Amino acid sequence: MVTPPYLQAGDTIGIVSTARKVNKTELQPALDLLARWGLKVKLGESIGAEKDQFAGEDALRARDFQQMLDDEQIKAIWCARGGYGTVRIIDLLDFQKFAANPKWIIGYSDITVLHAHLNGRGVETLHAQMPLDIDKKTVETATSLKELLFGKPYTIRYTDISGISRNGSAEGVLVGGNLSVLYSLCGSASQLNTAGKILFLEDLDEYLYHVDRMLQNLKRNGYFNSLNGLIIGGLTDMNDNTIPYGKTAEEIVEEIVSKYNFPVCYYFPAGHVNDNRALIMGRNVQLTVTGPDVALQFTS
């Protein structure tokens, strides 16, 4: 995997929206944060643009992202927010210049489209909090992003309170992101290859039966067959029907992967949660699960 150059004080980050609309005022806390980090900012034309729920027409969002990809002065592209819309522009983008001049692509949720697509092209990306609402998250949320952008050694340790984690140690390249998005990419040119890897999954505001349906689909697509380890982040604000499904989201995962032999942890501090730690997608990691104690070390 190719590691984009780490940032230095004075570098410029481009901010665009590939999905839902957002304005500069909403991003001001993030702009102030970047200034404190010694970084410059270039806002794309999608910031403040509107077309229904989107940050402008598909063509505008694609053009905006492409300009940031091709601009050699832009050292990282920070996607302003999620929602929905990135999949509508992914096939409009040309990554040829990016391949010769890679830079960090940052975001999560709907930005999983870009993480998966670029993983298949051998480039690391950052699954991390977006500019919108970063001031409402934990201090560790922003600090972890800064540490990774500036190339600091990085390990996440936490306590898994699920009581259903599976002990073990595994090594592999970290892949994944939002479950709903990964489910939607099955069968496309952006589908993940999970063989020999560590898979991270998170999601928000889904019905429990649909969580099962999506995981059944990943299972039937072979996502778990040769997997080395599974990390479950926030499965947040799940919904149920009048007649209960009968399992929590975490219990649904446990049932789906029960026949496989790899370590599994739950409630990992990443995703649609208050403590949304940054992750390097495409980086080799060491996952260690010992009862409630979990460590994820980014090794090389």
From TrEMBL:
Residues 13-128 form the LD-carboxypeptidase N-terminal domain. Residues 171-287 form the LD-carboxypeptidase C-terminal domain. One of its GO terms (biological process) is proteolysis. GO terms for molecular function: carboxypeptidase activity; serine-type peptidase activity. InterPro entries: Carboxypeptidase_A_C_sf (IPR027461), Class_I_gatase-like (IPR029062), LdcA_N (IPR027478), Peptidase_S66_N (IPR040449), Peptidase_S66C (IPR040921), S66_fam (IPR003507). Keywords: Carboxypeptidase, Hydrolase, Protease, Serine protease. The active site is at 109 (nucleophile), 202 (charge relay system), 272 (charge relay system). CDD domains: Peptidase_S66. It comes from the Bacteria. Belongs to the peptidase S66 family. This is LD-carboxypeptidase. It comes from Pukyongia salina.
